[in-house]
Every structure is written in structure tokens, then in C-alpha cells.
């Protein structure tokens, strides 16, 4: 069954750093695109940042606004348009029992990886790694087609291409997201069990030294020794600047002792042409 149908409503919210007020045109563009698809937008009060603050509200207020969207039965999916640093502030104020009952898909990338994984870990509700602001970006037409195909048609096949760095097959439930933000969950009850999971990793900023450090932390958390495979998205700064060692080399070296399968895609991450990946659902790569 399709996640969204003509006539449905979706929610927009900023659970991480709030949008700047000059982003209002982006929100208007998203609303126009969705209206053309027959989708109504319900805008949260936690969307734009307060004056002299990077936040769209206090942690309690942002959590309350997110729960309000989960409680609205007419809202069939919640798309988070934010990013930055502050999403993990809201986690203690979420009602995971109510989220589990609502089972409304939550969709976001980057810092929202903490919410994607926390919701799946604590409420067993899948989420999706996708940036709805792409509907207002340079690839708006192709992104609109992708949105319609993935969210509004009765098929959820993977749409991204990938290549193998080690192995030729992996299957399992997906966890992870932005590597820096995902690791904010380490040592908390929100961190997912990596056993037999596919760990997805991507990054916007950071060079080889930072990535090596973050990969070492994942290894020390026994993620690579327990997981079923590693799926790498784009590592924007490293790839754009062609920094060495490459992310492929760093991951290959860190995981060599486990011989874990590794795949790499250029279609998942922070790019305006990025595709969609389910978090908390099983996938097969072969």
C-alpha cells in the first residue's frame, strides 16, 4: 500500500535547528509541489527559528509539536525540513508509546538521524532518510517524480544505484544515517542494536581524520563486528575535495578484520539529487 495518496495531509516541522526566515520561499515551493500532487501541508509551529536563537522552540516545545503531528490522524507522514545540531534535545520529551500507536512515518536526514533511529529503536516505527527540501532544489522535477514513485505508488523498491567494495550481497534491517549525528546516540537507550543490521553512513562535512575517529568509535561500539553490511552514501566534503585517504579506504581498513560486505552509492546523502532509504525496514542488496 502506498504511504501517501491523493487527498492526504503531511506535516512539516523543524526538530533540529530552525529554518531561517528567508527559507519561507522554500516552504512555499514545497507546498506548491505537494499541492499539485494532491497533498495538503500541515505546518508545525516549530518551523522557523526564534529571533536571536538557532532554535524553532525549546526542546519541550519542539517535542510537543512533533507529538501533536503524531496525534493527528489526518497526518499520514511527517517530513522534517531542519538540520544542524540540536535534534537530540527533544528525545527525552517524546512519547514513544504514542508514536508506536500512531505508526506515522517520520522522514528526515542529517541531524534528524538521531530521531529516525530513536523512533525505530524505542517505538518500532520505520522512518525514511530523505530531504523534502529537494522538491524546491535544482533537481526539483526529478525529485518530484521520485517522491511520487516512492511515497505515492504501491511499490517501495530501492531506487538508488550502488557498487561493491567488498562482497556481492547483504540483507538486513537498515540503521544509521549521518555518521556524526548517529553517534550522538551512543551510550543511550536510543542507540539501535547493530546485530545483523545494515549500517548506513553518510556525511556532509569532515575530512579523513574526523571520519577515521568516527569510524573507530563505531568499531569500539562493536557495530562492524555485529552488522550484516555497510552501505556508504556520499561524504560530501571528502569527495568534493578529493581528500585522502578516501572514505572507501578508511572504511575498508577499519572493517577488514571482519570481512563485512561494503557497498557505496552516490545517490544517498546531502545532495539535492539524493534518493530515499528506509530506516528500520529490511532491504536486500545484491
Automatic annotation (TrEMBL):
<keyword id="KW-0645">Protease</keyword>
<dbReference type="Pfam" id="PF02016">
    <property type="entry name" value="Peptidase_S66"/>
</dbReference>
<feature type="active site" description="Charge relay system">
    <location>
        <position position="270"/>
    </location>
</feature>
<feature type="domain" description="LD-carboxypeptidase N-terminal">
    <location>
        <begin position="10"/>
        <end position="129"/>
    </location>
</feature>
<dbReference type="GO" id="GO:0004180">
    <property type="term" value="F:carboxypeptidase activity"/>
</dbReference>
<dbReference type="InterPro" id="IPR003507">
    <property type="entry name" value="S66_fam"/>
</dbReference>
<dbReference type="Pfam" id="PF17676">
    <property type="entry name" value="Peptidase_S66C"/>
</dbReference>
<feature type="active site" description="Nucleophile">
    <location>
        <position position="110"/>
    </location>
</feature>
<dbReference type="GO" id="GO:0006508">
    <property type="term" value="P:proteolysis"/>
</dbReference>
<dbReference type="InterPro" id="IPR040449">
    <property type="entry name" value="Peptidase_S66_N"/>
</dbReference>
<keyword id="KW-0720">Serine protease</keyword>
<feature type="active site" description="Charge relay system">
    <location>
        <position position="202"/>
    </location>
</feature>
<dbReference type="InterPro" id="IPR027478">
    <property type="entry name" value="LdcA_N"/>
</dbReference>
<dbReference type="InterPro" id="IPR027461">
    <property type="entry name" value="Carboxypeptidase_A_C_sf"/>
</dbReference>
<dbReference type="InterPro" id="IPR040921">
    <property type="entry name" value="Peptidase_S66C"/>
</dbReference>
<feature type="domain" description="LD-carboxypeptidase C-terminal">
    <location>
        <begin position="172"/>
        <end position="283"/>
    </location>
</feature>
<dbReference type="GO" id="GO:0008236">
    <property type="term" value="F:serine-type peptidase activity"/>
</dbReference>
<dbReference type="InterPro" id="IPR029062">
    <property type="entry name" value="Class_I_gatase-like"/>
</dbReference>
<keyword id="KW-0378">Hydrolase</keyword>
<keyword id="KW-0121">Carboxypeptidase</keyword>
<comment type="similarity">
    <text>Belongs to the peptidase S66 family.</text>
</comment>
<protein>
    <submittedName>
        <fullName>Peptidase</fullName>
    </submittedName>
</protein>
